[in-house]
Amino acid sequence: MTIPHPLTSLQRELLGDVAELYAAPDLRAKALDSTLRFGVIADPQYADVAPDIANNLYYRHALTKLPQAIEALNQQPLDFVVTLGDLVDRDWSSYAAILPQYDRLVHPHAVVLGNHDAQTIAQHLNHRAALPKSYYAFCLAGWRFIVCDGNDVSLYCNALNGDDYYQAETLLAQLQLQRQPQAQPWNGAVGQQQLLWIEQQLIEAQRLGEKVGVFGHYPLAPHTTHILMNANVLVELLTSYNIQFCLSGHDHRGNTAYIGQTGFYTMKGMLDGAADVPFAVVELDDIGVRIHGFGGEISRGVI
Question: InterPro entries under this entry (predicted)?
């Protein structure tokens, strides 16, 4: 298990219970020859605000939707559950409402931090500490799972993050000049240090004969307004090592793309709709990757 940027004591103190979102999952041992199964939740995005009915966004409903998904996932024999970001939409107090819902989860929990998480956390830190990095990797049953941090280089960084904010501004301006759809202030990018770390993980997995799956908040493909600002760089890297899949959230409509041997799957956002509770169970074995969708999420077969 690799966490290249553990929280500092000051970050941990300021974050309080939210610090648990930066911890890698506490995995249980598993036989190498059995199917690996994990649950997926994307974008609960809780806030104590009225719904945006015009855009089909129901912020308070996370407190009723998320327990439904967790109850269903608790009934499944899973190795872990991953939330692909945006546990909250805004307001630091939102975490005090949403985190207790996850206390009901009986499986190990891996978390990807989304752009709304990053913005909320950055506002709370208020330049008292740098916005923490949240990329790490963990291994289980012949698989290596890489969790990417798309807020690594973003407009949510503060002065204590070095030149990350300036890099984000520069990249955004370049993409705007090129009229790229992902040139949006609410998107982020993966920085050079993280890219080098990801390649090290891929090299190590290749050396050990491990299969690789990637989790991120920002989609990498297809090319839309919601992809990571430097998605092309990461796609080129990941596909050059023939990783098995990449799962993301952020674009609540969901999506699918295949590049080479790699499936890029964007999961539907739980925030959307008054009653829909989309989530998924993913099965991994020697045959391939199978995504079983629930509550409106799309199922995908073996690739």
Answer: Calcineurin-like_PHP (IPR004843), Metallo-depent_PP-like (IPR029052)
The answer to the question of residue 265 being in a domain is yes
Domain count, the chain: 1
R_g (Cα) of the chain, nearest Å: 18
Q: What is the pLDDT of residue 29?
A: 84
The pLDDT tens digits of the residues spanning 54-67 come to 999 999 999 999 99
Distance CA 269, CA 250 (A): 7
- 3 in a structural domain: no
- Both structure tokens of 20: 């648990």
Is residue 265 within 8 A of residue 259, CB to CB? The reply is no
pTM over 0.85: yes
- Report yes or no: 270 and 44 within 8 Å, Cβ to Cβ: yes
Residue 123 in domain: yes
Q: Is residue 177 domain-resident? A: yes
Q: Phi-psi region for residue 267, left (φ > 0), alpha (ψ -120 to 50) or beta?
A: beta
Residues in the chain predicted with pLDDT less than 70, given as ranges, are: 1, 31-33, 302-303
Distance between CA atoms of residues 162 and 149, nearest Å: 16
> What's 150's domain CATH number?
3.60.21.10
Measured distance CA(139)–CA(289) in Å, rounded: 17
